[in-house]
Amino acid sequence: MARTTFRVLGIVTSLNQPDKGVYEMVTAETPEEAKEIAKRRVEKKYPDGKTLMRNAELSEI
Question: Which CATH number characterizes residue 13's domain?
Fold first, then answer.
């Protein structure tokens, strides 16, 4: 299966800060795989927040 670049929208929620929208560009075979990879990346950047990943979209690259 071909690998495709996806744009994944994530929402990071923290206790003492407002919610933050985060986009990650991920190369993966399926949208589900892209969401998992993006979630791991965002969790490393924001370890103190709860991360929700939404809307794995095909990017327009």
Answer: 3.10.20
* Amino acid 41: pLDDT: 92
41 phi, psi to nearest 5 deg: -65, -45
Which letter, b or e, does each residue of 10-47 get, where b requires 16 or more Cβ atoms within 10 Å of its Cβ?
bbbeeeeeeeeebebebebeebeebbbbbbebbeeebe
Q: Which domain holds residue 9?
A: 4-58
Domain count, the chain: 1
What is the model's pLDDT at position 49?
77
